Amino acid sequence: MAKLTRLDDIVSLCKRRGFIYQSSDIYGGLASCYDYGPLGVELKRNVRNAWWKAVVQMRDDVLGLDCSILMHPMVWKASGHADKFADLVTLCKKCNTRTRVDHLADGEQTGAQEHTEHIDIDIAAGQQHDLSGKKCPACGAVGQFSKPMAFRLMFETQMGANVDDTMTLFLRPETAQGIFVNFRNVLDSARVKVPFGIAQIGKSFRNEVTTKAFIFRTREFEQAELEFFCKPGTDEDWYAHWKQQRFDWYLNLGIRKDNLRFRDHDPDELAHYAKACVDVEYKFPFGSGDWQELEGIANRTDYDLRQHQRGMRTMNDWFEQKGDLSKIALKDEDDNYIKGPLAYFEEQTRDRYVPYVIEPSAGVDRSTLAFLVDAYDEEEVKGEMRNVLRFHPHLAPIKAAVFPLVKKDGLPEIAMNLYNGLKGHFNCFYDEKGAVGRRYRRQDEAGTPFCLTIDGQTKEDNTVTVRDRDSMAQSRIPLDQVKNFLREKLDL
């Protein structure tokens, strides 16, 4: 058995079988934008549902949220994104390739490992970098770069009916800020106590300087993020808890352990808000070193809630000038807003504090790609190569396929009755075209765990042939036991 690890073949499979297509393909495509096809949309939905079940549904201390993509511009001013969420880029004077400064390798180095996602910089401030010894990744020229410039990563859009009342807004670059600004709403309406978490899954947008590797890094992507609020002093324990929870999630859904690892961020690599951060990395079949970030778990301290309380102070000053005192939050003697809406009062201990936050942040698209890559296998069967996706049953786009062996003798009618009885409980597929062996192969490439074949014996004893995807072993079970069989095997 040999495992295929070439990304080009994964991309080809995805298009051929209807997992993922290039967006706007008939017009030449749009770079870094992809559409999920019939199988892909089911796979991604299953990844999303598996995350939600593990992080929200199965826990008593996490609640869900679905925030608007468009938010007040003050949100991004307070969070620091409006001023600092940018990359430093430079232009190669020889080949005109634009590259992030932190991705440039020294002239004598080759194959440098990429770890950084983004480095916060002050857009307004001048940046001094010596690029004389750096090498262009495209043409190899050394030291032939333009002066670094800030490249803003947030997409801008306009809201308003006319020029006079138009407001410049941003497409959110992360889902986390929607959770932070709703902290008090959830605290009051859901009657929860710290420690507790708020989770959401949604689209984010980043005007990336460079994109790469299929759906690994795109300008439009889906995030699954949890903000877990805890008392300062307990944050390190919760950080360790969520590290293990998130690592085990991938293992439990079939990712091989030797393809996963933790990588702690170096002190000079940490984001300005982070006390600690670790990446769950997967050994993808691309890149200079293969190991790439799959998910980040960060201890964000109380940075975000305090920033938004400072942002509220700015708004309060404006409301105060307008005489609208109902909008003004309470200040303490040090003007720190400890009594403000985003602070927490612990009745049992009489402590008042701004909670610390542990944030596991996963990319749904990256996770989907990792599950695709890890599931892919090929093996020779009777002189022919079999391509198979060995998905965990919870992730498989199609749970069972139903075939009549031939299109006569009443077999299609029996098969269709079985299919209709199953599709209300499982995502199933009906196929009566072509040789049954080819139908099996098509379902192997789709990752379908079980195929159910109606044949001549079915009419005699009301049994059906069940064929297992991974072992290709076949057995017979009664027709009236198929539903229970699938529920047991799929653990659904």
Descriptive keywords:
alpha+beta, BirA Bifunctional Protein, domain 2, Rossmann fold, globular
Short précis:
This protein has helices at 7-17, 38-57, 73-79, 81-84, 176-181, 183-189, 235-252, 303-322, 364-375, 411-422, 436-446, 456-461, 482-490; strands at 20-22, 34-36, 62-64, 86-91, 98-100, 105-106, 134-135, 149-152, 156-159, 167-170, 196-205, 220-230, 260-264, 276-283, 291-301, 344-346, 351-353, 356-363, 376-381, 384-389, 400-404, 428-430, 450-454, 463-468, 474-478.
Q: Could you characterize what this model shows?
A:
By secondary structure, the protein is an alpha+beta fold. Among the domains are: about 180 residues, 2-Layer Sandwich (BirA Bifunctional Protein, domain 2); about 70 residues; about 90 residues, Rossmann fold (3-Layer(aba) Sandwich), CATH 3.40.50. It has 13 helices and 25 strands. The strands form 8 sheets. Strands 3-11-12-18-15-14-13 form a 7-stranded mixed beta sheet. Helix 2 crosses helix 9 and helix 3 packs across helix 8. About 5% of the residues have low confidence.
CATH architecture of the domain at 39-69 and 172-302 and 355-371: 2-Layer Sandwich
The CATH topology of the domain at 39-69 and 172-302 and 355-371: BirA Bifunctional Protein, domain 2
Oligomer: single chain
- Strand content bin: 25-35%
Q: State the end-to-end distance.
A: 30 Å
Largest sheet: 7 strands, mixed
Q: Shape, please?
A: globular
Say how many strands there are. Answer: 25
Mean of residue pLDDT values: 87
User: Which structural category fits the helices and strands?
Assistant: alpha+beta
Query: Helical content, roughly?
Result: 25-40%
| Biggest sheet, spatial arrangement of strands | 3-11-12-18-15-14-13
Compute the number of helices: 13
Spans of at least 5 consecutive residues whose pLDDT stays below 50 are: 109-115, 322-337
By CATH, the superfamily of the domain at 39-69 and 172-302 and 355-371 comes out as Bira Bifunctional Protein, Domain 2
Q: Any idea of the CATH class of the domain at 39-69 and 172-302 and 355-371?
A: Alpha Beta
Q: Rounded to an integer, what's the Rg over CA atoms?
A: 27 Å
